[in-house]
Write a structure and sequence with these properties.
The protein is α/β, with parallel strands linked by helices and 308 residues long. It is 44% helix and 19% strand.
């Protein structure tokens, strides 16, 4: 962990033979059609020292009644809270984390699900290394009954094999490729990093920037190549909204990326948006994003040349 001077201090979760407690933090907004499957995927886990905390962000689709019935059926501790008004995903997730009692925190969106034995491999890594702060895993995206692609491909796995400083620099200039559904993190470390930025909506990206910024000072991270989470593709996914997705990414760059890397970051963001748009036959959007990407890349090179 980090003390006030940025020094490492060892955080012993439990005696060596005891399994640490885990809280799954789940947030929901109008996903009644998916949330039962998500909750039952947590119930299927064989890990015993487990609780589920669900925070609903004022859904109006019957989520509260459905989850209320699941609370009565739950074979594990399941606590449900509903916000009186919609506060947004970051505040909802912050509330779920604050209510969690576990030493380790896992995340699960209410439209996704866990697969296989979600926790054992990652917990074993924590028990062997008291300086380990976060472990990432792998999984699949899926649509209906069909798998689509691995969540973390070879390029992402290669990135996670690098040191924290290299990963941080990548995160300053690229949207995060890490799926938070696959992570298991020490709660104390999560809170010391600042948790969610409640003013910036690209929550996964910001959390990963905060994690790796702290890890450049102290602590370890790890990657375990096990398929433990499944990310659902459907028409309501945020990434379908190009304008909003672009705005969220630019917001992160403005607040978190160092000034000397901002143009490079914007070039990468527009290039990725161009690729996504062209893949969906949105020709004009794709071409405009591609032109902006090239413009920012030229600006970045010109600034670098002047400073050399």
């Amino acid at each position: 962990m980090l003390n006030a001077n940025g020094d490492a201090r060892r955080a012993v979760l439990n005696p060596a033979n005891a399994d640490p407690s885990i809280s799954v933090a789940m947030t929901s907004y109008n996903y009644a059609r998916f949330i039962e499957e998500a909750i039952r995927s947590v119930w299927k886990q064989e890990y015993a020292n487990l609780e589920l905390v669900v925070v609903d962000d004022a859904s109006i689709d019957g989520t509260a009644a459905l989850v209320g019935e699941l609370v009565r059926q739950s074979p594990i501790p399941l606590r449900f809270y509903q916000n009186e008004k919609n506060l947004g995903p970051n505040l909802a997730q912050s509330r779920a984390v604050s209510l969690a009692r576990g030493e380790l925190i896992a995340f699960l969106a209410s439209d996704d699900r866990y697969a296989g034995e979600r926790f054992r491999g990652q917990v074993d890594l924590f028990k062997r290394d008291p300086d380990l702060m976060i472990v990432y895993g792998n999984g699949w995206s899926f649509r209906g009954n069909h798998r689509v692609a691995r969540l973390h491909g070879d390029r992402v796995k290669s990135l996670l094999a690098r040191d924290a400083a290299r990963v941080l620099r990548y995160l300053y200039t690229h949207a995060s490729p890490f799926y938070l559904q696959t992570a298991l993190v020490k709660k104390d470390f999560l809170l010391e990093c600042g948790g969610n930025d409640e003013e910036v909506l690209a929550d996964d990206w910001v959390l990963n920037i905060r994690f790796f910024k702290a890890l450049t000072q102290a602590g370890h991270f790890a990657y375990l190549d096990e398929d433990i989470a499944e990310y659902r593709l459907h028409d309501a996914n945020l990434h379908k909204n190009f304008a909003r997705q672009l705005a969220l990414k630019k917001q992160v760059v403005e607040k978190y990326t160092p000034s000397n890397l901002k143009r490079k970051a914007l070039a990468n963001i527009y290039r990725k948006q161009a690729s996504n748009a062209l893949a969906q036959d949105r020709l004009l959007t794709g071409l405009s994003c591609l032109l902006l990407s090239q413009a920012y890349r030229l600006f970045a090179r010109a600034v670098f040349a002047r400073s050399a």
